[in-house]
Amino acid sequence: MVNVISLPDALFCARPLVDQLFADRLLTSIYYGRPGAKGRTQKAADREEIAMLVGKLHAKAVELSAEVDGLVPVSKAAEKAKVPGITVVHMILGGFLKRVFRLAGQDGVGALRVDPAEVKQHRISCTEGLSPMEAFASLKISRNIGWCLVDRCPDEVGLAVNWIIGPDEDHRIPWFDPAVVADFKARLTHPVRIAERHGIQIGEVVGRLKRRRVRPELSESEVGENFYRIRDLKADLFT
Fold first, then answer.
1. Using 50, 70 and 90 to split pLDDT, how confident is the model at 34?
2. Taking all residues of the chain, what is their mean pLDDT, rounded to a whole number?
3. What is the separation of C-alpha 236 from the centre of its chain, rounded to a whole number of angstroms?
4. Which residues touch 98 (CB under 8 Å, ≥6 apart)?
5. Would you say 105 and 66 are in contact if contact means Cβ atoms under 8 Å apart?
6. Per-residue three-class SS string for the chain
7. Which of 189, 198, 195, 197 has the alpha carbon at shortest distance from 218?
8. Half-sphere exposure of 31 toward its Cβ, with a 13 Å CA cutoff?
9. Cα dist. 78→11, 84, 89, 200, 223 in Å?
10. pLDDT (tens digit, 9 = 90+) per residue, 46-65?
């Protein structure tokens, strides 16, 4: 395993891209060790999975012996196109970009060079809606809980993901319809959102729900958090 703190060095990229790789499930979180003072275990990724991801990216690239004018690193291309770095990674893996190169003697994402004009060209077709990070942040849930919800039957939960497929059909880019996220948010809520809305502590929210015997529609054991139907919450419950 590679501890999450060491992943930017292992992948030769910035920490925000590491978080985006986890959020879009291009890397799988591994939790290990005993919970610390804040109840958190350590997080890592499998070294073989990292090697596979880097291998796929490098396989899409033509080797360069030196820097070439007009080609920039993934991070710079993302900045110029005003998209997250993960979108450029998806473009490479999905076969959207024709001009993908890597500098000889360099490793990881940092070795890749792309044409920012080509990234801009595919920006709209590769960013249809909300990214997983944006969707889950809107719902105030972790990416693990968010994907647990997605993995449930869509008819049951109603948080379906849309997949964008490019020239390389083996790779899919996840995006969420803002209307679907808004509908989920209007139907289901959880203690953190309730506490924020009513200006009370989360512990107080949980206590009141238990005293009123309000049963969650989706339980923590199922998806990592208790979700309640908003229509089941009486008007006087948190006032």
1. low
2. 93
3. 36
4. 118
5. no
6. CEEHHHHHHHHCCCHHHHHHHHHCCCCCCEEECCCCCCCCCEEEECHHHHHHHHHHHHHCCEEECCCCCCCECHHHHHHHHCCCHHHHHHHHHCCCCCCEEEECCCCCHHHEEECHHHHHHCCCCCCCCECHHHHHHHHCCCHHHHHHHHHCCHHHHCCCCEEEECCCCCCEEEEECHHHHHHHHHHEECHHHHHHHHCCCHHHHHHHHHHCCCCCCECHHHHCCCEEEHHHCCCCCCC
7. 189
8. 7
9. 17, 6, 9, 40, 33
10. 999 999 999 999 999 999 99
Token pair of 53 as six digits: 């991801």
Q: Tokens for 222? A: 């199922």
Average pLDDT over every residue of 187-191: 96
Tokens describing residue 24: 């879009």
Strand partners for 164: 173
Q: Residue 156 — φ and ψ, nearest 5°?
A: -80, -45
Q: Is the pLDDT of residue 150 over 90?
A: yes
- CB–CB of 50/11 below 8 Å? yes
